[in-house]
Queue: 2 jobs
Job 1
Amino acid sequence: VRERTLIAVKPDGVHRRLVGQILQRFERKGFKLVGLKMLQAPEELLSLHYQDLRKKPFYPSLLHYMTSGPMVVMVWEGHNVVRTSRIMVGDTNPAEARAGSIRGDFSIHISRNVVHASDSVEGAQREIQLWFHGKELIDWNCSD
Ligand code: CMP
């Protein structure tokens, strides 16, 4: 089974012109881009995406931040892509994230952590269905 994950450049990442650098890290690693779009996420979509965080004290400010500007949402495919992407993205709290990871290199605060990465294979499947229609995912092959 080809593993896929959802990676999203959050509004702060787009605002700071980091889309190209983030995309480049996944290409350079060798993963395959199978879906890509830019959107200003509606609150209903974010409330489904973050359904497990509804009771958290930071939830209202999280929604405010995530609706503050456009996002770039991507689906990447490849061997172990969910786990490897989490390592490439780094700890949720940028203060703890390793240098060399995206959050370690580009951010300092947990509430502005630049990028989202699915946390499990099941979570990735759920999130991909939430953010993309099946037709928006391109099953391409270099050898075709
Ligand atoms: P992420 O792990 O992508 O998805 C949940 C987000 O909630 C997380 O990134 C942070 O942006 C945000 N978040 C988690 N914990 C906190 C916190 N303590 N304060 C503010 N935002 C948080």
Note: The longest helix spans residues 19-29.
Job 2
Amino acid sequence: MLQIKNLSVSYGAIEAVKNISLTVNDGEIVSLIGANGAGKTTTLHTITGLTPAVSGEVLFNGVDLLKTPNNKIVTLGMAHIPEGRHVFTRMSVQENLEMGAFSLKDRSHMADDLAMVFDMFPRLKERRNQKAGTLSGGEQQMLAMGRALMSHPNTILMDEPSMGLSPKLVKEIFAIIRKLHDQGITVLLVEQNANMALSIADRAYVLETGRITMEGDAKELMDNEQVRKAYLGA
Ligand code: ATP
């Protein structure tokens, strides 16, 4: 369970996240939607220690992540798939996946883990020896997801997985997120594609200029007049 309590984050004078609280229960998909610059990426970066908080708490199964070195966070079972994917472009697909397992003490299951990822993403298997930089955007997104899975996460933070992808690929990526959910993985999803984000989520939060302005059951938010006007193009 992930609990964010009264979290504030600033970049100098810019208050990017203002006293937000949110919870992600085990096994849930929770979406955080909002316009460009609302503070979504900053929130994910603060959870995994990439950006420092000004105040607040981020509890992951009772451990305060704000006091945990960021290289330890992955060992607690949390993986972060950043916006823009950040695959190692000059390394092969398989080498990128192997990097995902770097935090594991016991790497004897590497072959099984690779087989599990290749089973989920057959396209990565076909391209296992190809340099990651030569993959399409959708394939790089799959690689970033596969790399995260190599660390055996119970919780995944995903930042804009739909970014730059065709509608067909967005559907494919979201089908995989659903599959991860079916396997019991908890997901906190940040998306500008509010339609997809709300249709897949159990619950959602709306972030506007650093503040949470709405929260609730994702299907109910989809029917909410304000959400429809502001985020669903209705
Ligand atoms: P996007 O979808 O564009 O990533 P977002 O909702 O994720 O938007 P953030 O990237 O978290 O929003 O940005 C929140 C605010 O913080 C914005 O005003 C942004 O300009 C500012 N900001 C983000 N990163 C930095 C930084 N490294 N230095 C200064 N200001 C920043």
Note: Residues 11, 14, 16, 34, 36-42, 83, 192 surround adenosine-5'-triphosphate (CB under 6 Å).
